[in-house]
Amino acid sequence: MSTLTQETRHVQNPALGGVLLWRYACGYTEHHKTSEHPPLQLLFIVLPILFHRETCEVLRATNQPTGLHGFANKFSKSKLGKSDVLFGIQSRSLTWRDLTWKSVQLAIRSRILTLSRTHATAIPLTTSSPTRIPASVKPLLSNAQKLGQWCSALSLFEVGTILKVGF
Question: Which of 90, 104, 149, 160 qualifies as a cystine partner to 31, CB 3.0-4.6 A?
């Protein structure tokens, strides 16, 4: 196994993925106007955005008030014209759906997240911020919450349209 493959597995793993999905659900629920929980479908865009270097960097560099529209617009307004990176979220969500589902399962087993069978939503079971987090992971956690907050203000259709993904 190559060093790059090992490093990728250390970062792109279900344990970290489960925590990121949980923080996404916390950000979504906390900022939704009626405190609704995120639809299950939205969980499948989180890891393809956060585990991809270019989209994660743009997310981190986008101010909170800018929102999902501003995040997406940065790809088309880029001097380098990186609209293909935004379009790549769809293919990455399909490629990483097994990782996302394993992350959901691990978050459920860890009792930080549960799924509503009647509403098909992800419910965070605790909202307290994690402690003793490595410095390298903290930006991912805050990006997950920021993404959740942005998506909470939009419908599933709007999120799909802005990010060029189909649910």
Answer: 149
pTM here? Answer: 0.90
For residue range 16-61, list pLDDT tens digits in order: 999 999 999 999 999 999 999 999 999 999 999 999 999 999 999 9
Closest CA to 62 of 54, 70, 51: 70
d(CA 50, CA 96): 12
As given in the structure block, the two tokens for residue 124 are 């965070």
Give how far Cα 18 sits from Cα of 47, 127, 130, Å: 10, 14, 13
Phi, psi (rounded to 5 degrees) for 123: -110, 120
Which sequence spans correspond to the domains of the chain? 3-163
Which pairs count as long-range contacts for 53-56, CB under 8 Å and 24+ apart, including other chains? 54/82, 54/85, 55/85, 55/86, 55/88, 55/89, 56/140, 56/143
- Could you write out the DSSP letters of every residue in 132-144? S--TTTHHHHHHH
Give the H or E element holding residue 39: none
C-alpha–C-alpha distance, residues 39 and 123, integer Å: 9
pLDDT in tens, 81-108: 677 888 999 999 999 999 999 999 999 9
> Which residue in 96, 89, 100 sits closest to 161, CA to CA?
89
